[in-house]
Amino acid sequence: MDFQIPVKLERFGEDIKRNELRYHHRRVAVTKSFTFDAAHHLHLYEGKCKSLHGHTYHLSITVSGYVDEIGIVMDFGEIKRLFKEEIDARLDHRYLNEVLPNMNTSAENMIVWMWEQLDRRLEADGWKAKGHRLEELTLYETPTSRVTLKREWMTGDE
Ligand SMILES: Nc1nc2c(c(=O)[nH]1)N=C([C@H](O)[C@H](O)COP(=O)(O)OP(=O)(O)OP(=O)(O)O)CN2
Ligand SMILES: [Zn+2]
């Protein structure tokens, strides 16, 4: 039996092709946000945070790259996989002073450590060779306290 593509559907396909031509190779940033829970205390700190306590941390990861043939920069699911393997698997429901023994577990120190893990992983998985870059991380320690790290501050391009 002959199958005919309806004219309307054919036109839709043409529209998609035109869209590809227009947006392919545009650099766009994609962001995905996550939470994890952990306990910690601060050394060299006078105040309540020198005692053991916990947070539900919120982390937003932003990666930029070129829009590909199907119209995406990086699957949000892929960012989730990086987060799960590099951050969540190591920090969720852990005592941070134990799993990050060489640093004081301030939000500032933690976000630089997270940057190093994610950036190394983008390199190792071949994303950087395709032009992808880690652009920005934002880490909320509480709903009102957050730290931010941008690519230019890590590379000295500011
Ligand atoms: N610059 C930083 N200051 C503080 C950090 C830090 O990592 N970097 N950490 C802490 C404590 O670990 C803890 O996060 C308390 O933070 P804070 O915002 O003071 O939390 P509160 O819930 O008390 O905030 P309020 O909104 O004022 O109730 C301390 N400082
Ligand atoms: Zn804290």
Question: What's the topology here?
Answer:
Elements: H1 7-23, E1 27-40, E2 53-66, H2 76-91, E3 94-95, H3 96-99, H4 107-124, E4 133-142, E5 145-150, H5 151-155
Parallel strand pairs: 1-3
Antiparallel strand pairs: 1-2, 2-4, 4-5
This protein binds ligand LPXRUNBV and zinc ion.
Summary, kept brief:
Its EC number is 4.1.2.50. By secondary structure, the protein is an alpha+beta fold.
Give a structural overview.
- It is built from five helices and five strands; from the N terminus they run H-E-E-H-E-H-H-E-E-H.
- With 158 residues, the chain is an alpha+beta fold.
- The chain has a five-stranded mixed β-sheet.
- A hairpin with a 2-residue loop joins strand 4 and strand 5 (145-150).
- Helix 2 crosses helix 4 (107-124).
- The chain is elongated, with a radius of gyration of 21 Å.
- The model has no long low-confidence stretch (mean pLDDT 91).
- It binds the ligand Nc1nc2c(c(=O)[nH]1)N=C([C@H](O)[C@H](O)COP(=O)(O)OP(=O)(O)OP(=O)(O)O)CN2 and zinc ion.
- The site of the ligand Nc1nc2c(c(=O)[nH]1)N=C([C@H](O)[C@H](O)COP(=O)(O)OP(=O)(O)OP(=O)(O)O)CN2 has 9 residues, from helix 4 and strand 4.
